[in-house]
User: Which sequence fits this backbone?
């Protein structure tokens, strides 16, 4: 179930909000028993939320919950000796990654193996290599494709976070299976994050505070998030998808730039909108999740970009990969190795396609260069606009790899950006008033407007009229988003066959 | 925010909780208001149902189920459309031209030329038969002076008994019409003898009634009226102006928005057919030949007349309204296939692209907002089919044709555009043998029936006509059913359901719209198998 669907907005969410509020009103023996009931209800709602996308996938998630719950006991210092704990940790991490590999990367692995077999059987190496890079499997092994369960990358990372945090004594063992299951499966962050580290929410599971201040803050965040996703990201997606759907040789330079910019904005508003909704929903139920984005497109270096983009994922890799490898307090070559490993893994985590690998490696190289010398130059530069252009150019080129279906397609697209002249399509083919308004708003609200008016906002944020307008804007965003989602349900039968 | 926290929570709850409840209450207590809010959006389908078998791996059917029943759905969609139309109006008027200028395309192809009408292909004669008022160049003979009776010569007294010296008086007169001779009867006042004289037809006394300049949507012409008989006709046609300025391709889903509100289809391989980028390879051409040759041989064995027909894509019939795509070749796939099959397989294969394009001078043949042809397109193509098969052909000029407004279309459905905001399209009611009664064996709306069967005792052709095609076939049914004593018209996917009809056929037409022409091979193979059994 998606937050931006009518089943969520007009069925699931009202029911969960009303029932949860009911448990707040009803008198319980103690606060603990109230929390227990509430957690039980939120867990049930979360499992239903997940099962809605396919009952079979629920079994996989329950399995992951169960092994990590047991793993928590195995790695707990209070229960086992260090050797056992360490061995258990290794086993559980391998098991988690094994599950992730099977569901996420097995198809890719088979495509590669099939082409290697073809190469051994006489297919020219160049052709086989091309097929490997573009993941064109031959089907010779006859293995059925494995479907990817929704959100598996997120909840497995959260589960690993729990086991490692318990192993490191950073968080207490969670003996209550339901509470642990709620941590892994809590519906606001289940499908697209943010990736919540166990140590950050361990206390909130049983001792959170719910009040109207939190609920109100949650509503505000949810409405703005929904607006970002439905009004901005979905409109930008119409442009980006339309351009990427064209035959690659019909895309001229201007159109390629439009497609790249539209996708750059789309992915930000889509992802950050979803994170805002998750954070907002969390607050409605008393949870405080960490921020996931901090205006990444205002960054003036790649290092800064990664401090602002998908913060929960960067934090996870920093906490559980980068620092264990030695972090930055090690010889220079090791530092570069650590950066390389982290960003290669970041790329791999994003999807089963070599395009994501290249995307991750591009950042690894750029970050190493910045660490080596460029970072200081950028820091001391007076021309921040040039820094920003440099950063955004690479960020946007990175998104081309991220969006393309194959490495070859990405290569062609980038070539079109700089070489291809006029073609049959122009930017006018993908424009409308709505798209223009959304493009302008998207650029302005990606941090520039906020940065410009931050001083003013601080002064007027408690102004009566400003607050009133803010409430009206939230209502208008929610209403218009609902209208656009309902508008998207129009689905006529097309009379072609008969 | 503290002061407005209550208002904020109230608005939020109002927007996520109230609509479903209000909807349920409307349904129970105010069914009239409920009906008013449930206006049909023209989606032309049943509401989605839950696919329980798929729930194990997907909740899509649950979403679809609810999406079709979302409270106030049609009201919201209609309101959103109106809002979008309001927002887009200034864009179309002022921003789009500036964008084109920025893109450097506004000046392209300003040399719009007024060209003369394309010469009608010879095969068009089938429909004209020299009897069209529209295309006939009227010959206007100089009106001849009415003959004056010559006085009889004076009688010669030496020649014997005196003969009557006639004094002719006109006693009766039927005036000539423009193209029909008249007569006058002269009677001698002395002897009563009658003389019948022919008065030659005058020809039209044409008076120019109206001069219509060609524009981007219409042919230019002169309209004349005859001063004698009052008949009007059009002549001196001038081809439509061709707008060669750059027109940005805009796609909404699989619908292309073309010039002057014309819409086209981009789904499947349609655009490849239009751009000429899917020219068949030799092995594909050979596959066509083999399949059609085998079918021809099977039909010949059974004494069945065979015709293969490819109905042109709308994008090729009305390229002047298509956006500015790069067309790589004018000799596109269907033409290459048709030419090759005619040459190598010696099979009747019809691809009436030029004919339909030329006919646009007189009638529009495809619908503006739909992927299909209109009644005239179907009727004319049927006449070309009859011509190929050797049956009597009816000129559309010889029968009554009524124009009707027609707005709906499947492309509007694809794009989700409200038809009421668009200019009307045109379709026709063709009064074709209205007096003939047909007995249909199939119930339902003709256009929706997968297999249509009928009999007609008074049909001109005593034979069983079997046609296999796609959605284009349905508009031919009202005419075919009156021309054959027995007819079966079905979609190609129902070949196995009409095996007996195929075996019993006297005439077999296998057809497909060009964008789906590749399915002809499989269909031909299946039919061959049935006939050879």
Assistant:
């Amino acid at each position: 179930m998606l937050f931006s669907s009518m089943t969520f907005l007009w069925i699931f969410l009202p029911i969960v909000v009303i029932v949860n509020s009911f448990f707040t009103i009803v008198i319980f023996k103690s606060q603990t028993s109230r929390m227990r009931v509430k957690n039980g209800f939120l867990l049930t709602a979360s499992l239903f939320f997940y099962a809605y996308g396919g009952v079979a996938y629920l079994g996989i998630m329950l399995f992951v919950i169960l092994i990590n719950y047991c793993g928590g006991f195995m790695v707990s210092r209070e229960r086992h000796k260090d050797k056992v704990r360490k061995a258990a940790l290794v086993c559980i991490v391998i098991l988690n990654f094994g599950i992730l590999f099977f569901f996420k990367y097995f198809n890719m692995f088979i495509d590669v193996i099939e082409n290697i077999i073809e190469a051994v059987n006489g297919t020219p190496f160049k052709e086989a290599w091309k097929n490997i890079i573009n993941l064109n499997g031959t089907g010779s092994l006859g293995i059925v494709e494995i479907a990817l369960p929704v959100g598996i990358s997120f909840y497995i990372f959260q589960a690993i976070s729990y086991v490692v945090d318990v192993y490191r004594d950073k968080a207490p063992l969670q003996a209550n299976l339901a509470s642990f299951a709620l941590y892994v499966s809590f519906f606001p962050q289940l499908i697209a994050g943010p990736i919540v580290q166990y140590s950050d929410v361990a206390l909130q599971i049983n001792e959170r505070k719910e009040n109207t201040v939190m609920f109100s803050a949650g509503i505000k965040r949810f409405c703005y998030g929904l607006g970002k996703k439905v009004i901005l990201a979905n409109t930008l997606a119409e442009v980006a998808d339309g351009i990427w759907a064209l035959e690659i040789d019909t895309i001229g330079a201007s159109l390629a730039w439009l497609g790249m910019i539209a996708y750059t904005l789309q992915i930000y508003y889509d992802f950050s909108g979803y994170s805002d909704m998750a954070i907002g929903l969390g607050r409605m139920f008393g949870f405080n999740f960490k921020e996931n984005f901090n205006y990444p497109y205002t960054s003036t270096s790649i290092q800064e970009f990664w401090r602002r983009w998908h913060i929960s994922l960067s934090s996870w890799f920093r906490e559980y990969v980068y620092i264990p490898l030695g972090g930055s307090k090690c010889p220079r070559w090791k530092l570069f190795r650590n950066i390389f490993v982290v960003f290669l893994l970041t790329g791999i985590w994003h999807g089963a396609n070599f395009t994501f690998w290249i995307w991750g490696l591009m950042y690894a190289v750029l970050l190493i260069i910045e660490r080596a010398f460029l970072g200081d130059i950028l820091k001391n530069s007076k021309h921040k606009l040039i820094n920003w252009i440099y950063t955004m150019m690479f960020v946007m080129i990175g998104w081309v790899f991220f969006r393309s279906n194959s490495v070859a397609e990405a290569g062609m697209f980038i070539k079109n950006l700089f070489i291809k002249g006029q073609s049959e399509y122009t930017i006018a083919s993908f424009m409308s008033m709505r798209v223009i308004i959304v493009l302008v708003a998207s650029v302005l609200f990606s941090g520039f407007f906020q940065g410009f008016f931050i001083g003013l906002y601080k002064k007027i944020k408690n102004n009566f009229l400003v607050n009133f307008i803010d409430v009206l804007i939230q209502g208008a965003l929610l209403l218009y988003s609902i209208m656009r989602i309902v508008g998207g349900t129009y689905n006529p039968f097309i009379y072609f066959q008969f | 925010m503290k002061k407005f926290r209550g208002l904020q929570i109230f608005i939020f709850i109002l927007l996520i909780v109230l609509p479903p409840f209000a909807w349920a209450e409307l349904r129970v207590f105010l069914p009239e208001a409920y009906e008013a809010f449930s206006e049909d959006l023209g989606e032309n389908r049943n509401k989605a149902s839950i696919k329980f078998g798929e729930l194990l791996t997907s909740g899509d059917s649950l979403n679809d189920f609810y999406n079709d029943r979302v409270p106030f759905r049609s009201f919201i969609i209609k309101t959103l459309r109106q809002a979008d139309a309001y927002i887009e109006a200034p864009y179309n008027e002022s921003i789009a031209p500036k964008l084109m200028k920025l893109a450097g395309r506004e000046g392209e192809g300003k040399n719009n030329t007024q060209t003369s009408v394309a010469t009608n292909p010879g095969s068009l004669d089938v429909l004209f038969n020299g009897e069209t008022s529209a295309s006939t160049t009227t010959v206007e003979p100089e009106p001849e002076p009415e003959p004056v009776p010559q006085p009889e010569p004076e009688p010669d007294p030496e020649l014997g008994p005196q003969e009557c010296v006639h004094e002719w008086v006109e006693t009766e007169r039927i005036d000539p019409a423009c193209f029909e001779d008249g007569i006058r009867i002269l009677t001698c006042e002395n002897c009563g003898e009658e003389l019948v004289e022919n008065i030659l037809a005058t020809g039209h006394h044409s008076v120019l009634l109206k001069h219509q300049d060609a524009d981007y949507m219409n042919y230019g012409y002169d309209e004349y009226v005859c001063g004698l008989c009052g008949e009007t006709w059009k002549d001196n046609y001038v081809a439509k102006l061709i707008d060669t300025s750059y027109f940005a391709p805009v796609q909404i889903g699989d619908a292309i928005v073309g010039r002057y509100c014309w819409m086209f289809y981009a789904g499947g391989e349609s655009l490849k057919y239009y751009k000429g980028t899917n020219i068949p390879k030799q092995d594909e051409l050979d596959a066509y030949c083999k399949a059609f040759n085998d079918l021809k041989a099977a039909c010949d064995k059974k004494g069945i007349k065979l015709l293969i027909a490819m109905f042109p894509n709308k994008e090729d019939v009305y390229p002047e309204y298509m956006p500015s795509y790069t067309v790589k070749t004018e000799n596109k796939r269907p033409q290459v296939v048709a030419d090759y099959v005619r040459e190598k397989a010696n099979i009747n294969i019809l691809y009436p692209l030029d004919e339909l394009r030329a006919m646009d001078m007189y009638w529009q043949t495809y619908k503006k907002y739909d992927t299909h042809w209109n009644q005239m397109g179907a009727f004319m193509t049927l006449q070309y089919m009859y011509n190929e098969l050797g049956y009597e052909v009816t000129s559309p000029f010889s029968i009554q044709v009524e124009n009707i407004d027609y707005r709906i279309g499947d492309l509007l459905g694809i794009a989700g555009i409200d038809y009421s905001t668009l200019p009307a399209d045109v379709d026709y009611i063709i009064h074709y043998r209205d007096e003939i009664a047909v007995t249909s064996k199939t119930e339902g709306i003709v256009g929706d029936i997968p297999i249509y069967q009928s009999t007609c005792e008074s049909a001109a052709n005593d034979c069983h006509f079997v046609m296999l095609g796609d959605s284009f076939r349905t508009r031919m049914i009202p005419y075919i059913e009156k021309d054959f004593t027995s007819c079966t018209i079905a979609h190609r996917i129902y070949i196995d359901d009409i095996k007996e009809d195929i075996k019993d056929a006297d005439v077999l037409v296998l057809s497909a719209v060009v964008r789906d022409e590749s399915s002809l091979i499989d269909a031909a193979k299946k039919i061959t198998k049935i006939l050879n059994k």
